[in-house]
Amino acid sequence: MAKTLDKVDVVTVGVGWTGGIIAAECAKAGLKVRGLERGKNRGTEDFSMVHDEYRYAFRYELMQDLSKETITFRNNAKQRALPMRQLGSFLLGEGLGGAGTHWNGMTYRFLPYDFQIRSETEKKYGKSKIGSDYLLQDWGITYDELEPYYDKFEKTIGLSGEDTNPFWGKRSSDFPTPAMKRTPLLKKFEKATTDLGYHPYMVPSANLSEPYQNPDGASINGCQYCGFCERFGCEYGAKSSPEVTVVPTAKKTGNYDITFHANVVEVLKQGDKTTGVRYVDTLTGAEYIQPADVVVLTSYMMNNAKLLMVSDIGEQYNPETGKGTLGKNYCYQIEPGATGFFDEQMNTFMGAGALGMTIDDFNGDNFDHSNLDFLHGASISFVQSGSRPIGTNPIPSDVPLWGAEFKKASVHNFTRALDVFGQGASLPHKNNYLSLDPTYKDKYGVPLLQMTYNFTEQDRNLHKFITQKTVDVMEAMGAKKTEGGGMLEDYDIAPYQSTHNTGGTTIGDDPNTSVVNNYLQHWDMENLFVVGAGNFNHNSGYNPTATVGALAYRAAEGIQKYRQKGGSLV
Amino acid sequence: MADTKKGLSRRDFLKTSGIAAGTLVGGGLIGGLVGYNVKKSDSGTAVAPEPGHSDADINRGLMFFQKRHDFDVLSQAVERIFPEDELGPGAIGLGVPYFIDNQLAGNYGSNAKEYMQEPFFEGGPTQGYQTRLPRSEVFLAGIAAMDQEANKRFEKSFIDIEGQQMDEILTDLQKDKIEMQGVSSSFFFKLLRGATLEGAYSDPLYNGNVNMEGWRMKGFPGHQMSYINVIEEEKFQKIEPKSLSSMQH
Questions:
Q1: Same domain, yes or no, for B183 and B237?
Q2: Are B31 and B123 in the same domain?
């Protein structure tokens, strides 16, 4: 029998960026907030031994324990979905801060085009440009409407950058801190892309160029360029993360607490409202009911979708009929790129997760698509994130994968190879979606989430186009030998690609085509908010965190509005 | 050699990281920093092996393999994958077989953090790990298969055949041409290759990468506090590596 706890104003399921932002804003406004985090407490003090590639990057020290819960996967509905038994393609977070602890810190705003992608595309290229299999839609919120929230998120994290990109949307204020150092390797990219007539700019970085105090009084330190960001926590507190920013801000109010080891298994409901959540204490196995006036799903996008599905809230998307909204528009990203081999040794092992430069000349609709067989595009970047020796073994394609030749080439090229890569937009396809698995269950008896996903024609065409652009850039950077990546094949869950999973709980202005309104309030349940990259209708050619952060600030405002006047906010 | 003059002093470090401004709450980082400044020779406790010394293997032993022969087959196989040459030691010289043995005895070998619930089905090529065998069993099966294959083809144990003959067997494993029970040979080979590189380049605390020779070959300096003062240098920076294990005494 589950024990019922005292009611709180707001409960968040998960404490990463979105849970932390909601907590900070609502607690500052005087609401009593409780965060339920299924992982453990952690912070800067846990990371003094973090320069351990094997433990953190290969044995996934900070990531989700899949023995308790994973997802199942298949490329298409005809295949049998099987569990993702070990981590690979993407790395799910767990514990305080979630994936916001071990991110790289590349923090781009999406383009104005992204939010009105269907109407803009139809206006410019006609109604037939978007094939009927692609479920592209406007987001029900514009860039200009979201701009203040982007601004707020960037000020919270102290984002380092410079406003020199001609392609991005108008900014209401400059970056809170200056851009990171322009290293000799970044300058190679800058010169090459400038010579080619493109427009390079410094990657907006959450590894901060200098110490910073945010408007809430939280402090972030200056980056040391040690080269251990992605998959690691920062031992200097110099990478903006929930634990060094919004979580202490929320705690300072006295209106916030976090229950750790609390794995939420159900969103409870009565009529058309939620009454709270049910969770299992993962240490004792005991069950609790946490009543709340407002429930906010702030876990990773997959778990947000799963909790709605197992709690039977909203209508599951059906690819046969096109009906239902929950689980649709699952998108990912493609990563076309080129490797360049150089004669001289370079300081490839130094760096920071977001130390890099980007061009947007082939992103969004920044170039004409009239005669192209795809939409959208990719950011193209060089990032000096710090090469590490287990993971970085660059060899030309004619060298075998093991043996004497492999050893020579991989050792030689460790400090002599650079990569230029694209982050290609991913557009929703009717056959790519999330649902519940009929067979496999998690440790608590709840069905696993099932992913049905494959790359599309659009992906393959965009991949091919961007690969050539990355080859051009690498050649201009002076590589002695340049190799572009091969053709895009079927999506494979095993090799690491990107933890930029999006969709499933989409935002919009119509309950028939979206799960939440533009305050991230559930269409069917006014006191339930669902926040994260799951809200994206498609994935842009950038890292998602800035948009996730902006949406969380938008939701926090919505929750406060809702507490004042109730009902639907739109 | 290390250009130690370019290394950060503790004071510089505090300045650049913002700690001097009193902005870091909690003792976490300061606590973590203490270790950076302890002179190993003054600590009076066990001294971490210095580069070039050979006492790094002082606590080495087998935690997983019960038959020395299995360990020897593994050793020969990983040496073919990552052989000794003029650049430096191969897998055996780097302690990779011990690394793998030790890992197989722990969470890695028992798939402690992996989803191993029934039912198991043979997956498609894009569905990843689908065998019911944990990694420890996959290695035992793979080692047995290599030895059987050597016996079948050359009437000798794997450890007694020529290097080129070993390569033939490894290539056939890689290409899924060798029958194994419960797991494909290419899957075993992928694990074996991955573990070899992990052993060659992980921190020496895991009993591989002996004396940081793997890092030294690649020019990787290991665990360094900061590159903030050298990252703008045009010139390649040759820095004597440091291990995490040397910080833990």
A1: no
A2: no
Please check whether residues B151 and B232 belong to one and the same domain: no
Class of domain A3-565: alpha beta
Given the cut 0.90, state whether the ipTM is greater than it. yes
- Set of chain A residues whose Cβ sits within 8 Å of the Cβ of B219: 345, 349, 414-415
Flag whether B50 is in a domain. no
Q: What is the number of structural domains in chain B? A: 2
B97 contacts chain A (CB < 8 A): no
pTM (global) more than 0.90: yes
Of A102, A376, A429, A500, which residue is the catalytic one? A500
Distance (Å, whole) CA A446 – CA B117: 13
pLDDT tens digits for range B121-132: 999 999 999 999
Q: Mark the ranges of chain A whose per-residue pLDDT is less than 50.
A: none
d(Cα A257, Cα A468) in Å, to the nearest integer? Answer: 51
Mean pLDDT along residues B33-40 = 31
Tokens 């690609």 sit on residue? A497
Q: Which of residues 90-109 of A touch B (CB under 8 A)?
A: none
Per-residue pLDDT at A1:
82
Residue B46 domain-assigned (yes or no)? no
Residue B109 has pLDDT above 90, yes or no: yes
- Per-residue tokens: A145: 């409407």
Query: Is A500 a residue of the active site?
Result: yes
Residues B189 and B141 in one domain: yes
User: What pLDDT shows up at residue B248?
Assistant: 59
Instruction: Tell me which residue range forms the domain holding B105.
Output: 56-212
- Chain A contacts of B26, Cβ < 8 Å? 43-45
Spatial CA neighbour of A535 closest among A516, A562, A512: A516
Better pLDDT: B17 or B57: B57
Question: Among residues 409-448 of chain A, which lie with CB inside 8 Å of chain B?
Answer: 411, 414-415, 439-441
Q: Considering only CB atoms, which chain B residues are within 8 Å of A79?
A: 124
Domain boundaries, chain A: 3-565
Tell me, yes or no, whether B200 and B165 share the same domain: yes
Test mutation, A82, A241, A437, A452, chain B, max B CBs within 10 A: A82
Q: How many CB atoms within 10 Å of residue A403?
A: 17
B242, closest residue in chain A (CA to CA):
A51
pLDDT band at B23 (very low <50, low <70, confident <90, very high): very low
- The pLDDT, as a whole number, for residue A268 is 98
Cβ distance B119 to A411 less than 8 Å, yes or no, reads no
The answer, yes or no, to whether residue B58 has pLDDT greater than 80, is: no
Q: CA of B190 to nearest chain A CA: how many angstroms apart?
A: 10
Q: Which residues contact A277 (CB under 8 A, 6 or more apart)?
A: A11, A13, A36, A264, A266, A267, A268, A289, A290, A292, A295
What tokens does A535 get?
Answer: 């809200």
pLDDT over threshold 80, residue B51: no
